[in-house]
Structure formats: C-alpha cells, structure tokens
Design goal:
This protein has about 160 residues and is an alpha+beta fold. It has 5 helices and 6 strands, in the order αββααβββαβα.
Length: about 160
Amino acid sequence: MTVTADRTHLYNMLSNLIGNAIKYSGEKTCRITLKGTVSSQEMALSVTDEGIGISEANQKRVFDKFYRVPSGNLHDVKGFGLGLYYVSDMMSKHNGSVTVKSQLGKGSTFTLHFKNLTTMDKIRVLLVEDEPTLAMIIKDTLDGEEFEVILAATEKKELSTI
C-alpha cells in the first residue's frame, strides 16, 4: 500500500491517533490495531482501540479546535483539544478526510481516508520557460498522475488556459 502524503504530517497524525488510543484506554490493557485498506477510490489507514469510547453526541465535535470530550470534574488526561483538529486539518490539506466510529465502553476507530491519485483532479501547472530544452526537462519531471503541465514561453500567452 502506498500513500502519497507529507512524511512529517503523516507521522504526526498517526502518532496523535495512537497516543490518544493509549491515553484513553481506561483501566483495561491497551490494545491498538492498525489497518490499511485499498479500494479503487481511496487508501485508508485506521487506528482502532478498545478504550473508553466516545458518545455519539461528542463524536460530532471531536475534530473541532480546542474541543475536549467532557469528563466531569476529572482531569486525569492532559491536552488542549488540538490533536484531532490537527489531524482533520492536515487530512483536508492532503485532499482527504478523517472519520471516527466509536461506542462508549467499547473503543474507537479513527480512519484517515486518502484519495487515490487516479481519482483526484490533476493539479494544473503553468510552466513559463523560454529555454525549450529546460522546459521539456521540467515538464517531463512533473507530468504524470499528479500534475498537468502547460508550457508557455511567456506568462501572458497561456494564462487564459488555466
């Protein structure tokens, strides 16, 4: 399975999800499952735990900035409510999404959904280069599944095409 993502942010997102699974494991033995799946539309990475779980009402807000699931007057888990917001924001920037499925007392599954490059719109790049050989080298390097390269000798010539 190959995921196209920024290495640092992917590491941080997975670290956050695994760290949360550990923090919210409750009194039980901490058991975490990582799973990757591939379909024609997406690649998904899931982190599943058997921890305390999240109520349905709170699942709707866990990706909000500064939101923390209320735990009454108990403050045994530290945090600022930024971790899941970060995961959601980074997945959006990767043209993907994150979902949660959870049951109180049974655990949670957080899934990172990455669109397959073949299902994504290509990024259009206007390459302005008056040296034809250099232009072709750059075009050949960028052309492919992610980018559609439009060559122009001057910026005014091709601006109307993008």
